[in-house]
Design the sequence.
């Protein structure tokens, strides 16, 4: 999994809300989690339940003192978390799609790369 990464991955925690469809197509649940790491094109989170690999999800990234960042991402890998029982590490690949804040997300990541390591 790590071999395929082309951009720098940052160990940085942000709060993420993931919209997960329920069994009825007319409703959805929102799952709250934190990132383990992130990059300009993706992020890794830990969830206490499995989500569909290949599924497309709407995300809201909540960063202190900033407007929320809305994204769409695909769950590229969903293995069980080796450090926690009943948890899954989810690798999300961010899509460049209309009506999302991809440019803002990339700017946020670039700012983290430029920041001194103690301020991230």
Sequence:
């Amino acid at each position: 999994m790590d071999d395929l990464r082309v951009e720098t991955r940052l160990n940085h925690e942000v709060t993420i809300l993931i919209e997960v469809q329920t069994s009825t197509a007319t409703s959805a649940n929102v799952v709250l989690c934190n990132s383990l790491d992130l990059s300009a094109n993706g992020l890794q989170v830990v969830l206490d339940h499995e989500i569909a690999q290949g599924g497309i999800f709407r995300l809201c990234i909540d960063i202190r003192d900033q407007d929320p960042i809305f994204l769409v991402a695909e769950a590229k890998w969903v293995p069980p978390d080796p450090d926690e029982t009943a948890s899954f590490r989810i690798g999300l690949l961010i899509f460049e799609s209309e009506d999302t804040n991809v440019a803002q997300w990339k700017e946020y990541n670039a700012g983290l790369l430029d920041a001194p390591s103690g301020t991230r």
Notes: Residues 75 and 92 are 5 Å apart (CA to CA). The helical segments are 102-114. Strands lie at 15-21, 28-39, 42-47, 56-62, 69-77, 88-94.
